[in-house]
Amino acid sequence: MRPFLTMIDLPPFWLAAHLAGVWVLALISPPLFGEVGDWLGRSLVLLGIGVTVIAVLQMTQHRTTVIPRRTPSAIVTTGLFAWSRNPIYLADALILLGAVLWLDAILALPLVAVFAWLIQTRFIRDEEARLTLAFGPEFDLWAARTRRWFGRQ
Fold it and tell me: What is the pTM of this model?
């Protein structure tokens, strides 16, 4: 991949691109959610931002990278990471869903699923492979008890 494309092939770029798609589709979407959508959408955006900040702080506390495709120096399995193996990606999806509701863009709802698929195929699977190589059984135990997106098994 070309250097510029590699530089922008990061989850925040994909989130911004999908948010732009939500905005465009909001221009042609029929109104559906109203004030409830405004309130719920803003709440989800704020929740997503909060989850991102907390997850980044937890990763920083464990002195490991938050940058995809870099080799992790530690595995974080506590805090938010006890409930999601990918809380930052989950937060991105919450922000995107919040934007759909807030902007009353029902036609953009499929973009949330497209975003989740894209993140899972372009980033999560590679990250899990790196974690398996770096931490082996410790990652396997965490993966067995914590779902990729959200929940405990």
Answer: 0.93
Question: Is residue 16 included in any domain, yes or no?
Answer: no
What tens digit of pLDDT does each residue of 7-25 get?
Answer: 678 999 999 999 999 999 9
Q: Are 29 and 106 in contact (CB under 8 A)?
A: yes
Question: Quick one: pLDDT band at residue 69, thresholds 50, 70, 90?
Answer: confident
User: What's the structural domain count of the chain?
Assistant: 1
Is the residue at 96 inside a domain? yes
**Range of 136's domain?**
32-145
**Spatial distance between the Cα atoms of 107 and 22, rounded to a whole number of angstroms:** 8
Q: Which two tokens stand for residue 38?
A: 């405004």
Retrieve residue 119's tokens.
């993140």
DSSP codes, 105-142: -GGGHHHHHHHHHHHIIIIIHHHHHHHHHHHTHHHHHH
Q: Is residue 23 part of a domain?
A: no
Q: What single-letter amino acid sits at 30? A: P
Rounded Cα gap, residues 34 and 36, in angstroms: 5
